[in-house]
Specification:
The protein is of the alpha/beta class. It has ten helices and seven strands. The relative contact order is 0.19.
Length: 232
């Protein structure tokens, strides 16, 4: 499955969810799709910018890290300008032939690159928090995904618990038509994002791990529906 992790508002924890969600699947690769302001650690070597400029194959640009293989974005403005977005879909399809799951960490906003990445995906996970501005942005992303025909596998509601925000969870599920997984505000998330390592690797007993597994299971259910629809 190719899964887009998206959310129009920045700062809602989208990259953190993408990193941790990728770790929940066997044979998954994480793609940092933010060509101008990436959040995931890049290191040295070829990047998505170079892949989209036709200078290197997608598989050759993947960093086979211990936790989650990563295709980093790149941080060059010239590289971002040279990137051909029409090459994105072939690139992730090539990765999908090598990995069972391709998790794309989409950039914030609703620019063309977000649309291209959502369109390339079999399904999407939306990431938001209880802030009303973030929720409006999530709905805008949901509307874009609907227009492109990309189903929403689930919604990650960051910095929230079901006990505190039960009514809001019900409202979101009703208006957006997808199940919500709440992820409480905990130091483990920020700590692991800083070092580019998933929570389960560093804090295996954290309750966050259970929430991430719930979100991953909803993605698996969406994958089953996608595969069933293709075979029908």
């Amino acid at each position: 499955m190719i899964l887009a992790v998206a959310g129009a508002k920045g700062g809602v924890g989208r990259s953190t969810v993408a990193l941790n969600l990728a770790h929940e699947f066997d044979a998954a690769v994480l793609v940092d799709g933010d060509l101008t302001d990436p959040d995931l650690p890049g290191g040295t070597g070829p990047t998505l910018q170079e892949v989209l400029a036709g200078r290197v194959n997608a598989a050759d640009a993947v960093r086979e890290r211990e936790a989650v293989p990563l295709l980093p974005s790149g941080r060059s403005l010239d590289g971002a300008r040279a990137a051909d977005l029409e090459a994105f879909d072939p690139a992730v399809e090539a990765l999908h032939r090598q990995y069972s799951h391709v998790i794309v960490d989409c950039p914030p906003g609703l620019a063309r690159d977000v649309g291209v990445q959502l369109d390339s995906a079999d399904a999407a996970v939306l990431v938001t928090n209880p802030d009303r501005t973030a929720l409006r942005s999530a709905r805008d992303t949901r509307d874009l995904a609907d227009t492109l025909g990309t189903p929403i596998a689930g919604i990650a509601l960051n910095r929230a618990t079901a006990e505190e925000y039960g009514d809001l969870v019900t409202e979101i599920e009703s208006t957006m038509g997808a199940p919500v997984t709440t992820i409480s505000r905990r130091i483990e998330l920020g700590d692991t994002q800083t070092h580019g390592r998933p929570v389960r690797d560093v804090y295996p007993d954290s309750p966050i791990c259970d929430r991430l597994e719930t979100l991953a299971q909803r993605v698996r259910e969406a994958q089953h529906h996608v595969e069933h629809a293709r075979s029908s």
